[in-house]
Amino acid sequence: MHHINSRLFYAAIFFAFGFLFNSPVYAQAVRELDELSDVDIVEHLDEFVPQDIPFLTDDGEAGTIGDYFDGERPVILTMGFYRCPLLCPLTLSGLVKGLNDLDETPGNEFRIVTVSIDPTDKPEFSRVIKDQNLSHIDREGAEAGWTFLTGNEDSIGKLADSIGFQFKYDEETQQYLHAAGIFILTPNGKISRYLYGMDFDANTMRMALLEASQGKIGTTIDRILLFCYHYDPETGKYTPMAMNIAQLGSAATLVFFGVLMGSMWIVRKKKAGNGEGPDNPGDDQTMDA
């Protein structure tokens, strides 16, 4: 199981400043690191999200998380809180930027579900955040494919636990501490891929969605590319896989020579049928005469 520890980034910053300046800052670094002890993302690849977890939509309608897995389209899942001052808006902004570079459209080839981790968030907050983000998507019909949900503490906890999203509430700042990333799920609700950070390039998202859909979306070229590439958790991107490329090259060579030989055989048969080839007995008789 791949384990991403978001505390290392914060620890490096605080410890560096602590050593450079004074011991009180170092002490603060220790306190901050302790506060982040429960903030992390632990991958649960190939595990299913419980389908019966209840939530409210941005229109205030009751439903479950399972309503968004239709067996046909993969789902991009994001978690944050709607009154987040920095990290959540940056994560959603990075997602929107990637979406604008995609050929596919939310609601057509895939769906997006954003869930608040704050049980005090209400559907009216969902609607505001939804409108803000959709206003930056240059794609007609995207509104039907992106839903913002709110729920109680039990629902939020069950969903977060199922995908390994560990967060905590900080009493001092009255904010939630959490890591940045999005989650790619199959059309049936199985966790397929974790994409970390706040910048999601279109190619990585396309490959992740294609992978989650098992080739049901995307073009033939996309499916070939997916065969040639594999996801590298260290870089967070899809990189070339030498063995698959070699196999594909061998297969292409065989197909090429197969087509070439077939074409030569067809031409030869046509010439023979028209009396142009040496296999035609009529030609031999004429020459003997």
How would you describe the overall organization of this protein?
Helix 1 runs antiparallel to helix 2 and helix 6 packs across helix 7. The chain is elongated, with a radius of gyration of 28 Å. Mean pLDDT is 77; it is low at 19-33, 215-228, 242-249 and 281-289. The strands form five sheets. A five-stranded mixed sheet has the order 7-6-5-11-12, sandwiched between helices. It is 43% helix and 19% strand. The longest helix is centred in the last third of the chain and has 32 residues, at 242-273. It has helices spanning 7-20, 23-35, 87-100, 123-134, 153-163, 202-212, 220-228, 242-273, 281-288, and strands at 3-4, 40-42, 54-56, 62-64, 75-80, 111-116, 146-149, 165-166, 168-170, 175-177, 181-185, 191-196, 229-232, 237-240. The protein is built from nine helices and 14 strands. Strand 9 and strand 10 form a beta hairpin. With 289 residues, it is an alpha+beta fold. The protein folds into two domains: 1-38, no CATH class; 40-240, Glutaredoxin (3-Layer(aba) Sandwich).
Largest sheet: 5 strands, mixed
Give Rg in angstroms. 28 Å
In percent, how helical is the residue content? 40-55%
- End-to-end separation in angstroms reads 84 Å
Strand order of the largest sheet: 7-6-5-11-12
Tell me the CATH architecture of the largest domain.
Answer: 3-Layer(aba) Sandwich
Beta percentage is 15-25%
What would the CATH topology of the largest domain be?
Glutaredoxin
Poorly predicted parts: 19-33, 215-228, 242-249, 281-289
Structural class: alpha+beta
Highest-level CATH class of the largest domain:
Alpha Beta
From the spread of the alpha carbons, the general shape counts as elongated
Please report the number of helical segments: 9
The beta-strand count equals 14
Number of domains: 2
What's the CATH H-level homologous superfamily of the largest domain? Glutaredoxin
Series of H and E elements:
EHHEEEEHEHEHEEEEEHHEEHH
| Arithmetic mean pLDDT | 77
